[in-house]
Amino acid sequence: MTAFEKGTLNRVRVATRASYDQDTVFSILDQGLAAHVGFTDHDRPVVIPMIYGRIGERLYLHGAKAARFAKVLGGGVPICVTVTLIDGIVAGRSAFHSSMNYRSVVLHGTAALVTDPGEREAAMEAVTNHLMPGRWDEVRPTTAKELAATAIISFAIEEASAKARTGPPNDDKEDYDLPIWGGVVPLQTVYGAPEDDGALAPGTELPDSIRKILSG
Amino acid sequence: MTAFEKGTLNRVRVATRASYDQDTVFSILDQGLAAHVGFTDHDRPVVIPMIYGRIGERLYLHGAKAARFAKVLGGGVPICVTVTLIDGIVAGRSAFHSSMNYRSVVLHGTAALVTDPGEREAAMEAVTNHLMPGRWDEVRPTTAKELAATAIISFAIEEASAKARTGPPNDDKEDYDLPIWGGVVPLQTVYGAPEDDGALAPGTELPDSIRKILSG
Q1: Confidence check: pLDDT of B95 > 80
Q2: What residues in B contact A81, CB-CB < 8 Å?
Q3: Model confidence pLDDT, tens digit, residues A176-206
Q4: Which residue of B8, B51, B91 is in closest CB contact with A210?
Q5: What is the CATH number of domain A15-171+182-214?
Q6: What is the tens place of the pLDDT at every residue in B174-190?
Q7: Residues A108, B44: C-beta atoms closer than 8 Å
Q8: Best interface-test mutation with A: which of B139, B158, B163, B190 has the largest number of A CBs within 10 A?
């Protein structure tokens, strides 16, 4: 079991809910759809939702070269990326013991603009396949013009922690006698039936990438 | 239609995807379950998932007094809170035109510790009812000890913007001739059947708050 080192940034206060195990961190990252990317711009914190891809211990983000995130994060600044999966609402018998069940990872690193053409292409493939596994090989190849308009930001995961809450509420002992419901309402993110855009070339079928996400 | 002013922090680059309308911002906030809260700690950006509540133009967060967020945000520092609802995966015929459908809000403000007892209680009610409407009146009242252990952070929404992407991919004209599937795979967050904790007092029924979220 490989673990991320506990540092000043990633230490979780409630130890029973924390994990620094790489497999746990990567598993949550790989299940997430959007990351919340935090950085500092003109001395103010900024958090934006972004899609992402992972290659080993490195995370990749991409977007329009003209976007603020690219201008700021391309400059080699600290970045924090958080991915959260919500698993349920925890209804305790008191407000104090009500909560959510979730799994989250918080990553810290130093962002940099990726300039190497090979790494840029690998990153775009990782981001595309993160949402739809294998999609990169199904789509029309990326053009030089598209590549030129795309900024790729990457960082090595320097510190990481996973945090999770599972199970029923931990109510106060005496509250179990009260006629108040206690338990969990599970939450799940589910895919609906794919909706083609009504402009498919004749004979075009649903691709393997989408079949794969639908079959879970 | 009341709008948030466009400032230096909340201006969205792609104007067609942006809204500064209060109703739009509040509607996304009210549908979200977790917020991603960004602040700066020791010169590093930090993003943590938190539950929240809204009263008018003011957002409330709560947590253990001992937690880092309470110590940092209680000091009157800049805060950025982002809530994202993911509506679908957009499968374009190229990687470049693949994306997600989503609605998000980014809020900026200055965080402060709430100390007024009445406002603290109203905030806890708002946070509790945000996840389960009406739950505050169903649960065992909060004790003085619980109140003492809870930090409430609040900020007035100084700048806000909503951003959304909807609809099918916007593929390049010539790509529609390719035998590549284009469309959207919808995504939805759904509640499962409530699971009580097996320790209900005799005769305890599912409360209205949970019936309400289940009926949508």
Answers
A1: yes
A2: 47
A3: 999 999 999 999 999 999 999 999 999 999 9
A4: B91
A5: 2.30.110.10
A6: 999 999 999 999 999 99
A7: yes
A8: B139
> Could you tell me which residue, A173 or B19, shows the higher pLDDT?
A173
Minimum Cα–Cα distance from B184: chain A residue? A195
Q: What does the pLDDT read at residue A7? A: 67
The whole-model pTM stands at 0.94
Find residues 189-208 of chain B whose CB sits inside 8 Å of chain A. 189-201, 203-207
- The residue among A127, A139, A142, A172 with the most chain B CBs within 10 A of its CB, best to mutate, is A139
Rounded CA gap, A104 and A82, in Å? 7
Q: Which of residues 140-199 of A touch B (CB under 8 A)?
A: 140-143, 146, 150, 168-169, 175-199
CA of A61, closest CA in chain B: separation in Å? 13
**What beta strand segments (E) does chain B contain?**
18-19, 35-41, 44-50, 52-55, 58-64, 78-91, 99-110, 112-113, 150-156, 159-165, 183-191, 195-196
Q: What is the ipTM of this complex?
A: 0.94
Task: Name the superfamily (CATH) of residues B15-214.
Answer: Electron Transport, Fmn-binding Protein; Chain A (2.30.110.10)
| DSSP codes joined into one string, B112-150 | EE---HHHHHHHHHHHHHHHSTTGGGTSBPPPHHHHHHE
Q: Chain B window 39-78: which residues touch A at a Cβ cutoff of 8 Å?
A: 39-40, 42-49, 51, 64, 66-68, 78
Q: What is the mean pLDDT of residues A51-72?
A: 90
What is the rounded distance in angstroms from the CA atom of residue A163 to the CA atom of residue A69? 26
d(Cα B144, Cα B150) in Å, to the nearest integer?
10
pLDDT, mean of residues B19-35: 93
pLDDT of the residue at A15: 65
Residue B13: per-residue pLDDT: 62
**Is the CB of residue A105 less than 8 Å from the CB of residue A159?**
no
